[in-house]
Each structure stands twice: as C-alpha cells, then as structure tokens.
Design brief:
single chain; mainly alpha; Arc Repressor Mutant, subunit A; 2 domains; 10 helices; 0% strand
Length: 216
C-alpha cells in the first residue's frame, strides 16, 4: 500500500497532464500570433483552464516559453523518425523542413523571452541544436543515399538556410513566402543526372575546396 501511495505521488494525474498539453498547444498559437507580449490570460482562456492552473504548471512567462519551444523541438525530432519510412526521401526532407517553419514562427513570437532563457542556460540552445541537427541529418543522409540530393551539403547548412529565409521575412504572410522559397531551394539541391553536373561523394560533404568552380 505504501509503495502504491508513493507511486501515485510521483505520477502526475491524467487531468494534470492533459491540462499541461492544452496550455502548451494554446501558448503556441497565441505566441505565434501575438508575440511575446501576448497575455498569459489569453493563453489560459484558449486552453480552457484557469490562470491559476497555468501558473501551477509554469510559474513564469519564461518557463512557459521554454516549455513551448522544447515541445516543438521534440515534435520535430519525432516527425523525422516517422518520415524515415516515407516512400520518397526528398519529399520526407521537404516535409520536415516545412514543419520547421512553424517552429520558427513560434520562436519569432517569443524571441525576446527565449533570448533571455538561452543566455541564462546554454543547455537549452545545445539541446535544441543537437536534436534538430540529428533529425534533419537522418533525413538528409537517406536522400543522399537514394541519389536524390547532392552530397556536398550538411545538416547545419540546411538549418542555416532555412533559418536565414525565415528571419529575412517579417511582413504578414511571411510563412507562405518562405515555404515557396524553400521549395525552390530544395529543388536546387536535387540531383539531375541529365545536366552532367558532378555531385560530391558523401565523404566530401561540406568540404568543397575553395576556389574550385563547379561545372554546370
């Protein structure tokens, strides 16, 4: 009986878990639309919980921002695992990168608070960068092995390109512009045997010699 009581104390109640997930989902929507100044009351209202419930799970605004961001990173990592069995490796890579635009949209809405969180703990930056790099690397390696994507590109290159496109556009509707440009970018990385363009071997990925122009 004592062991059962201790286990019950350790495990969160199912309704508490559901409330936490509702708050995180609501916060993603609210912060993506309204930025870091969006009120926590708006988050609680969208989640269908009281403000006291929100504060029990997330005592500070920064704690909520960080939890939302970590959840988005975890979901992208899980999506990469699911896409490993997709019929087309390049389409799987494209879908993952499109989903990453949602993460950037959420992050842009919380950028001030996230900057404070990252400054206070380098672990958050290391955690997100490591997980995202591994996720996109898995899909990239599969596309390269299938002969669909050129091999002289690294996971870090893809992430930098994606983030760069996202942060160069701040006008309303910027996501649709980025998604269109990203499609052009991915299509430019596709191997086209008929063009006669040489593609580097996997061992040369990211190590192209400076000063050597590629034949087109």
């Amino acid at each position: 009986m004592a062991d059962q009581s201790a286990e019950a104390l350790r495990k969160p109640r199912s309704d508490a878990v559901r409330n936490r997930e509702r708050v995180l989902e609501a916060a993603k929507a609210v912060f993506s639309a309204g930025g870091a100044d969006a009120s926590l009351e708006a988050v609680a209202k969208r989640a269908g919980v009281g403000i006291g419930t929100l504060y029990r799970h997330f005592p500070t605004r920064e704690a909520l921002f960080e939890a939302v961001y970590r959840r988005e990173v975890d979901q992208l990592s899980e999506l990469a695992e699911q896409l490993k069995s997709a019929p087309s490796p390049v389409d799987a890579l494209r879908r993952w990168m499109r989903s990453n635009v949602e993460l950037v949209a959420t992050k842009k809405g919380m950028i001030s608070a996230l900057a404070l969180a990252v400054q206070g703990s380098s672990e958050l930056y290391a955690y997100s960068f490591d997980r995202l790099t591994k996720a996109i690397g898995t899909l990239l390696d599969r596309a390269v092995a299938a002969g669909e994507i050129r091999a002289d590109i690294s996971p870090e290159d893809l992430l930098r390109a994606l983030i760069g496109m996202c942060y160069l556009h701040d006008q309303p509707g910027w996501q649709s512009t980025v998604l269109r440009l990203m499609d052009v970018f991915i299509d430019g990385l596709r191997v086209q045997p008929a063009s006669g363009r040489k593609v580097a071997s996997p061992s040369r990925r990211g190590s192209a010699k400076p000063g050597v122009k590629r034949k087109r």
